[in-house]
Amino acid sequence: MSGRSRYVAALDQGTTSTRCLVFDHGGRMVSVAQHEHAQLYPEPGWAEHDPTEIWANTLRVLPEALDVAGLEVGDVASLGIANQRETTIVWDRSTGRPVAPAITWQDTRTADIVSQLQHSPQAGLFQEVCGLEPAGYFAAPRLRWLLDHVPGLQRRARTGELAFGTVESWLIWNLTGGPDGGVHVTDVTNASRTLLMDIHTLEWDRRLLDVLDIPEELLPEIRPNAQVYGTCTVGLPGVPIGGAFGDQQAALFGQTCFAEGEAKCTYGTGAFLLMNTGSTIAPSSRGLISTVAFALDDQPAQYATEGSIAVAGALVQWFRDALEMISSAPEIETLARRVDDNGGCYIVPAFAGLFAPHWQPDARGVVVGLTSYVTRAHLARAVLEATAWQSAEVVEAMVADSGMDFATLRVDGGMTSNHLLMQMVADVLDVPVERPLVSESVSLGAAYAAGLAVGYWPDLEGLRANWRRAAMWEPTMSEGSRRRGRAEWDRAVARTLDWAAEA
Amino acid sequence: MPRAIQSIERAAAALHVLGAVAEPVPLGELARILDLPKTTTHGIVRTLCDVGFVEQQPETGAYSLGTGLSALGRHLDPHLLRSRVTNWADGLAARTGLEVQVGVLRGPSVELIAHVFRPDGSPQRLRVGELQPAHATALGHALLAWSPSAARIHELELTAYTPSTPTTGVALARAMRQARRLGWAGVDGALTPGTAGVAAPICQHAGIGVGAIAVVGPRDRVLQASGAPHDGLVEQVVGAAQATAGTLRDVL
Ligand SMILES: Nc1ncnc2c1ncn2[C@@H]1O[C@H](COP(=O)(O)OP(=O)(O)OP(=O)(O)O)[C@@H](O)[C@H]1O
After folding, report:
1. Are A307 and A354 in contact (CB under 8 A)?
2. Ligand 1 center to residue A155 CA distance, Å?
3. Other beta carbons within 10 Å of A202
4. Which three-class secondary structure state does DSSP give residue A124?
5. Helices (H), A73-178
């Protein structure tokens, strides 16, 4: 590490924007710059981004973040990348041009490919090799779709002219020279979301490539999360790229959940709960996803189990925009605090079916327990409780699958400013809930990986010491109330089932 | 009785007209209804646009009531304030190493609506919802000094907690004047001996403090031996307050 390099930069390439954050040695954020990119919806169910726009924004935010804090490129010891997961890009290695728009994780065009996979004789192979059931949100079916639909692509893919990658691959390749010597790599966490990587060996699996007929020539090399992949020739010229992570794993790392049983949940529009399962891959009978938590250079990988809640903050938005009960999301707390309980009312937001751990696509949302006693304040409580109970369901499934102790939950995301909700989460999980001082866990995780790779931070213990508690909520609910509430929630969930199927 | 002020009467009439009609009203139409020259009417609606009580449609140029009017009388939601202040409060705690408190005025007390732990890993308890006597803390002083009801400080019960608690209306009024002059309030051990705080108001429309943000800690971590805050501390607190105020100006 050069004596002058006092900072580490993180590039957070998200669904709506690309940001660069700069952190100091204490893990404190000293600067941020951000640009949004266009969301393209060319057909119903399609959701695309323009990879060239994302790349152009990257080249803008990197110097801007330095300018904000009055830094120079030489002040930056390393650059780490965190990215929206499963978004798929294919580009031409000689021109550097994408052959099609990026197909994002929100895009549902691969439903047919996925359903074929689910019903094929090899369906079990995916679970065995990747720890994943074939599902619409992984990258490989999107790649298959491109190979099927972009003229000439399948043929060109075999010649090695083309490169496939998720967003971090695209950015690393461009940052390290593009057509002129760009490094074509991905990290284990992003690779674990393709449906092509063997989660045990951390290598592409020949059999799965064959099932999907994907030429190996397209694929990036799989690397650990913290390792110098190459050096920037543009953006931050001369700065090593020392790490990459899928966003949710980056958040787990940024929250320093390095040990078995440590867990974090990001409460935003949806919620993503990940628990570190150490060196154990916890196969799930309950629809959770086994995934790589992180792999350091020359060390065995650590794994995680992941459960996502599709509708968390989105239910608050619905309450605000569709029901017009409040004029801003935070006001839901004011409304909910007018009453002491939910008045017997439950809301199950199965807007697009039930996800983990139920997986019932034909379920639809319900509001149950309505009586003339119920007011909008009770509804507001029920909205918040829905996020808490869904968290409880995911945690229960994780504990049942892994047999691990669940001692505390670390949280981040926009909804953590809602104290009533955070108290509910602590109550229904019966564990303390903690919020870190640096709420930018995703970027911090990427920065940590990058810093480790160049020795800016010595080891995981050093990073742990950086974690600071900004607030903590202790459980206060009695065992009896918890059991009763949990049972009522189950009864409410039961009433969502098979609704869409009847139509 | 003082004479009615004509321009205010006219502005009120313009608002009544705009409030009575479902569609945006073109300038000429408005002038006709008010029976005023177009230039006078224009001056009135322009001014009302500037203060947010009237909006002009970008396409047609016609006028309608603005969102500022419906926001009048709706006091700032404390949870919205918490949501907006959190980033700045976290940053303030990270940079100063001190506990951060954010409060609003509740009668004679300060209610804490946000709290960031002192970032030293020591066990601490979330204090949101707690009440502090306004006359004895930095938050209270900042809130009283920038509150329209500050005239009521003479009605406060000035309980003495320590020898440095202001216990007379005169002493408190002096502290308020000083805070307003400086733009921040500092209180040294007026509630708990050995604990000091520096607070700044979060000001919304017309400079009214809708909340205040403070760093609080052991006296020697907050103040120098001279009693003045450590170098740079005031700037950090005031900066966080102003940045938060900036986010309140945006639409919700
Ligand atoms: N105080 C609050 N109480 C309840 N819900 C809230 C509160 N503040 C924000 N939300 C909800 O949280 C969500 C926004 O969180 P966040 O800013 O983390 O969004 P995101 O879009 O998921 O994340 P990002 O923009 O970082 O990708 C919205 O759905 C909003 O309704």
Report:
1. no
2. 44
3. 18
4. helix
5. 111-119, 123-130, 139-149, 153-159, 167-175
CB pairs under 8 A between A and B: 67
Q: Which pair of tokens denotes residue A468?
A: 């600071």
Measured distance CA(A323)–CA(A12) in Å, rounded: 33
Distances (CA, A) of A206 to A132, A146, A196, A198, A461: 16, 20, 8, 9, 37
Output the pLDDT for position A495.
96
Top pLDDT among A125 and A174 is at A174
CA of A329 to the centre of ligand 1 (A): 8
Cross-strand partners of B131:
B111
**Set of chain B residues whose Cβ sits within 8 Å of the Cβ of A333:** 79
CATH 1.10.10.10 fits B6-71, yes or no: yes
Is pLDDT at A301 greater than 50 in this prediction? yes
- Asked if A330 and B82 touch (Cβ cutoff 8 Å), the reply is yes
Q: Say how many CA atoms lie within 13 Å of A217 toward its Cβ.
A: 14
What three-state secondary structure class fits A217? helix
A99 lines ligand 1 (CB under 6 A): no
pLDDT one-digit tens code per residue, A354-409 = 887 888 888 899 999 999 999 999 999 999 999 999 999 999 999 988 888 899 99
Number of Cβ atoms within 10 Å of the Cβ of A337? 16
Q: For every residue of B168-229, which 3-state class applies, written as one string?
A: CHHHHHHHHHHHHHHCCEEEECCCCCCEEEEEEEEECHHHCEEEEEEEEEEHHHHECCCCCE
- The gap from C-alpha B242 to its chain's centroid, in whole angstroms, comes to 10
Assess whether the previous peptide bond of B163 is cis (omega < 30° from 0): no
* pLDDT bracket for residue A135 (50, 70, 90): confident
Predicted pLDDT of residue B18 = 86
> Which residues 6+ apart lie within 8 Å of B51 measured at CB?
B68
* Ligand 1 midpoint to CA A318 (Å): 12
Residues of B in contact with A331 (CB under 8 A): 77, 79-80
A329 touching B (Cβ < 8 Å): yes
Task: Name the least confident of A28-37, A57-66, A200-209, B72-81.
Answer: B72-81
Beta carbon of A313 within 6 Å of any ligand 1 atom: yes
Q: Determine the 3-state secondary structure of A119 from DSSP.
A: helix
pLDDT at site B250: 60
Residue nearest to atom 21 of ligand 1 (CA): A269
Beta bridge partners of A306: A274, A289
> Residue A2 — very low, low, confident or very high, per pLDDT cuts 50/70/90?
very low
Look at residue A1 in the predicted model and tell me its pLDDT.
43
- CATH architecture of the domain formed by B78-247: 2-Layer Sandwich (3.30)
How confident is the model at residue B252, as a pLDDT? 39
DSSP calls for A348-394 = E--BTBB-TTT-BTT---EEE---TT--HHHHHHHHHHHHHHHHHHH
Distance from CA of A446 to the nearest CA of B (A): 20
pLDDT in the model for residue A51: 96
DSSP code, position A109 = T
SS3 state at A465: helix
Q: Where are the domains of chain B?
A: 6-71, 78-247
Answer whether A418 touches B (CB < 8 Å).
Answer: yes
Q: Are the C-beta atoms of A277 and A401 separated by less than 8 Å?
A: no
pLDDT of residue B82: 94
- Phi and psi at A120, nearest 5°, equal -80, 160
DSSP state of A431: S
**Any idea what the Cα angle at residue B116 is, between residues A378 and B232, rounded to 5°?**
145
- Smallest CA–CA distance, residue A327 to chain B, in Å, is 7
Q: What number is the average pLDDT over the span B105-118?
A: 92
